[in-house]
Design a protein that fits this description.
Rossmann fold; 251 residues; alpha/beta; 24% strand; disordered C terminus; four-stranded antiparallel beta sheet; globular; six-stranded mixed beta sheet; 9 helices; single chain
Length: 251
């Protein structure tokens, strides 16, 4: 379980996160949703240590991540898999070397062992015969699956996905959602997804945190959303659905 306890984060004179307390559960797909400027990206960056909290704490299974030094955090970082919004693949590396990159950083595996693990992860995300290709030769959906393969290479306990469906068509987005759901169950991971994709919310919404103006405004499941009278949440969900329909109609 990952916990944020009374987290505050600001920049200059702007307070971005205010007294955020929430937990993200093992074996579940946990979603962070909210409009632009709500603080969801900053919260995710604080959770993985890309940003430091100003006040409060981040804990991983009772381990206070916020109080640790850079060196002390290394064991936890090795348990984290990250899928960045754009995939963040290395353009100069082949698919196989992209997937094996964290293995070279954090393990003493031989080159053959790294190749075997990379191949296993690529097969797990349903990619074959792509090992020697470069990212520029892949479709958007394939790039996301390579990014997921790299994220699970270290057999992580925690998986973070920042807008995993960004830039993908609806059909491919469903494939990515299903893959993340399957991997979460298979690896018993604590998975966090930062998203504004309402299909992801409806399909994966076991635990949803809604941020509004830098505060935790609502918490529950997708089924709870359907019966919620939270005005700001309903406004966000309705606006997101209208915009998605508008875009899908080619407007």
């Amino acid at each position: 379980m990952i916990e944020a306890k009374n987290v505050y984060k600001g920049f200059s004179n702007k307070q971005v996160l205010t007294d955020i307390s929430c937990s993200f559960e093992e074996g579940k797909v946990n979603l962070i949703i909210g409009g632009s400027g709500s603080g969801k990206t900053v919260l995710m960056k604080c959770l993985v240590g890309l940003m430091e909290v100003d006040k409060g704490s981040i804990e991983y299974d009772g381990r206070n991540f916020s109080d640790m030094s850079f060196r002390e955090r290394k064991p936890i970082r090795q348990e984290i898999g990250m899928v960045f919004q754009g995939g963040a693949l290395f353009d100069s590396l082949t698919v196989e070397r992209n997937v094996g990159f964290p293995l070279g950083m954090f393990t003493n595996m031989s080159p053959e062992e790294k190749r075997e693990r990379a191949n296993f992860c690529l097969q797990r995300v349903n990619l074959v015969n792509v090992n020697r290709l470069f990212p520029s030769e892949l479709s958007g959906g394939m790039k996301k699956r390579v990014a997921i393969a790299r994220a699970i290479a270290m057999n992580p306990k925690y998986l973070f996905c920042d807008e995993p469906n960004s830039g993908l068509d609806p059909k491919t987005s469903i494939v990515i959602d299903k893959l993340i759901e399957e991997l979460t169950d298979e690896y018993k991971m604590t998975t966090l997804i930062n998203t504004h994709d309402m299909n992801s919310v409806s399909e994966l919404g076991e635990k949803i945190i809604f941020l509004h103006q830098g505060k935790k405004w609502w918490e529950g499941s997708f089924n709870d959303i359907l019966h919620s009278d939270n005005i700001e949440l309903n406004d966000f969900i309705f606006a997101s659905r209208v915009m998605k329909k508008f875009k899908s109609n080619g407007a």
